[in-house]
User: Fold Alkaline phosphatase from Pedobacter africanus.
Amino acid sequence: MKHLFYCVLLTGLLLSFNSKAQTGLSPNQGHSHNDYHQNIPLLTAYYAGMGSIEADIFLKNGELYVAHDTSEIKANATLKQLYLDPLAALYHKNGNRPYPDTAMKLQLVIDIKKNHQQVLPQLIKALNVYGDVFKSDQNPDAIRIVLSGDMPKAENFKNYPGYIAFDGRPYTIYTPEQLKRVAMISDDLKKYTAWNGKGTPTKTDEAKLRRVIEQARQKNKPFRFWATQDSPNTWIVLEKLGVHWLNTDQPEKLRSFYLNRKKLSYTNPVAYPVYTPDYKSDGLKKPAKNIILLIGDGMGLAQIHAATVANHGSLNIGQMRNIGFSQTTAANADNTDSAAGGSAIAMGEKTNNRYIGMGTDNKKRTNLVDTLAGYGIKSGIISVGDITDATPAVFYAHQTDRSMSQEIARDLLNSKTELLIGSNQKSFLQNKDAQLMENLKAQGFNLSTSLDAFSAQTSGKQLVLLPDEATRPVKDGRGDVLKQALLHSIQLLRSPKKGFFIMAEGAQIDYGGHANDLPYVITELHDFDKTVAAALRFADQDGETLVLVTADHETGGLTLLDASTESGTISGEFSTNDHTNIMVPVFAYGPGAETFRGTYPNNQLFHKILQVLELSKRK
Assistant:
């Protein structure tokens, strides 16, 4: 195993962990169980920041071997080669401490499988070679040695060097002197519960678990259960119960879970109020005059439920009674992107990923905005992200690649939209078509570069190009840009006779999903949900407006693990940083809302919108 030793010496900069920054437990509370079974013993757990690493040992022909049983003993798998030499090398490399981070500690738990009377003298002899590296009784920065398995009786602890600590048991009664030699207290989880790590233990079993952990705490000793399931749900439950050491066979997974904890948990201490619609126009059998389409980019059911929990059990979206499901598959792939997903909604047919308002034959399709313009219905497009990005772009542009931002911006010249609101000034103001802004002005577009400037407009076509700072994430202080932009757009577009269509996008729900950042997702969804409230309130006042809330796809494969509606706390995990092909919900409120019930391909949204508008009656 010489390669392991040299690997230690030649390994580059160790990843830094700051245990003080963690809430609750951290990777340094990980116990790498049966560590020698890892593909790379010691180093996998070490570079995952585990604070406890376990090696089982046997004595054979005067040598200490690492193995689970005697049949596994191999000539080069000695305690010295696999653990003691590499640990000593790391210790010295780190300036005579276990990890570069001075807050991190390390213990080597040596499980003696049998004959401790013969094994211990040999172990002590082996440890003494390394000076103070393992002598925790003399050196506070030492790597602590903890014995487990076949151990001496407590009354014999005093017969061994002070740097030898022991893995205690809750049923053993220790004298104060003996307790000083106990490093931790451990026991088999199965003695207390049949809980298998899924869900939570019964109340009776939970009381048993808490009792044994509390008994250890009263002795000022950290507690560990062995034989636990290895999953985030198990870790969450055990942490809540109060354990200090988390048994794991997946140190890298545990490290990732705890280091990303701030991005995977969110608490909203105070709920915002939810609007209760009057439902007077909901489901009326009459044509809708106005359509407000609210697209939560990347918003799936898990995101909605996470936001519901975080708002202490309620959302404005949840007040909408007519619900359907949209299948988001693209024409050329089961997993869609925003371009294909949005295009299907905007033009009524499936297309390829990356295509903006184009059919699979590379020909332009007439989008919803231009279709409605033929009936005198004016339209507005709003986003709290890049206005040339895929979802808003599909309602006014036609390109074969969503990355063609400047070409998408120029397509506004050929669109019938009256309002375009979002960020990315550069694609318009520094477009390679030097005449773009002059030509847009000639078509009647008034340019605003702030929400205040837009709010002062009282009529006419509007191009609102917000600076990037104005569309920063809500968690960084954006404010209610989406809601205010929607409300003023309604005032500019509403007509006594013709009606309007507005698409408003909560773009950054998707950004949070790509970043696997749950607080980002939820704060953006809460902002989007407050915009939903504004739309519902207008629909009640107007009586002729249909409000639709949906998504172009789900992003992140979000799974929810732990929740408390009482405290507004939610925890989860993401399975990908990309889109998934999970169906997304469609919520409808107002005249014709029942049309959107059921399950259907996303391109049917285009046709259902035309259906509820009953355009044939407008000619």
User: Anything to note?
Assistant: Residues 1-23 have pLDDT under 50 and may be disordered.
